[in-house]
Amino acid sequence: xxxxxxxxxGSLTLxxxxxxxxxxxxFQPHFSIYTSVVRDGYNIDAAVTMQGYTTINCNMASAxxxxxxxxxxxxxxxxxxxxxxxxxxxxxxxxxxxxxxxSDQIYNWVWDGEATCSIFGTFLNSGGGGSLPGCxxxxxxxxxxAGVVVGNITVTAFDQQISDTAIDNFDGKMIVESDAATxxxxxxxxxxxxxxxxxxxxGNWPVGGGQVTGEPNHWGWxxxxxxxxxxxxxxxxxPAHGKPLPCGFVNYQALTIQCxxxxxxxxxxxxxxxxxxxxxxxxxxxxxxxxxxxxACRETPF
Amino acid sequence: xxxxxxxxxxxxxxxxxxxQSSPPTHQHNITTPNLIDGAVHPExxxxxxxxxxxxxxxxTGVNPTEAEQTHQRMRIVGTGLKNxxxxxxxxxxxxxxxxxxxxxxxxxxxxxxxAARNQTTDARPLLKEIDDLxxxxxxxxxxxxxxxxxxxxxxxxxxxxxNMKMTGENQ
Lengths: 302, 171
Prior knowledge:
By secondary structure, chain A is mainly beta.
């Protein structure tokens, strides 16, 4: 029985020694991978970057390493490789892929990053993918103050214009908002009997319709600000509870645009979202909308 | 005892032969166990790594092709920078890329020479130099871009951590 145990232990020791010489004990990879997708009109631009190096702790004089980035949209594209270099060399490679989509189509995106040794093969690999809908997507959006809301003058109405490089027509498509991230509300306290204002309300607007009818490629109005009731409430309650004015909220707004495919939408705002702010001062309010390509503020006495 | 030694010796040969005869395999789908996924733990991706990946992805080499310029334009538009900030960033990134490539080339030359002498190379000085370059580029951005553009770019790069992965050590 002892011999069996010794045999098993001896075998395990040898096996571990072998794997150490081929694995992390011999070389330890230090790599990073970045994937990104941007859109402009019907164009989809995807990039995959792989970079890093390997710490070598053994004799690998005869080996070479290289890194690769795979970037395939609907079967087009492929691998981009760095040149081969010494095992401890630093590698960096980016695979770009621009694809022109068609409405109503869904495209499969496959990406991968790998580091390969000429002796031991691929020693680091990380991939993924997803679906990219063919869709007309704006690449820019500007904002302008349209006015204040009647009966709620502390709320500002903003009018947006969207566009792409090809100057396409977006009229009729629906814009829908959601939260890109959780916002902040510096007016609120545990004493407050009002809800915290840390997110958008989830509005939707038809491009070229509603309150901006007759304005091609415009949507709106996007209403930003505290209601007059809340301004009055926090002007008294915030200082009374140790929160000096100004106080206000910050929301981070993600916007999606409707594709022609039923139910399919694409987010066109940067991943950080648009920043919407509303601050209450002693004699006025200041509401701002920081958009993809610009910003606008409205200071309203109240 | 003799039988045990014989068994152990045979097992050593057996594993040695296995190790020798195993051909180099293409081990696809091997994932380094300590790969940090920025989609799950963005706080574990340092800003320096996020900026480095962004700068390298968006920058171009000397005399970029039309396609490279198109990629770059789309990527910078995606950050929401205004036109003046856009042009300034292109110029800053060009300078970054030239210095980055020079640092990497210099390191790789010394690493190749060391490998030829059967010696290994410590990459940490290179990483320090790259980190310094990334930081100095960020400093230039904060000075030369508008405050709004600089803040917008920072928010964008930080939010892009969700699309980044990295191994856990010495990045």
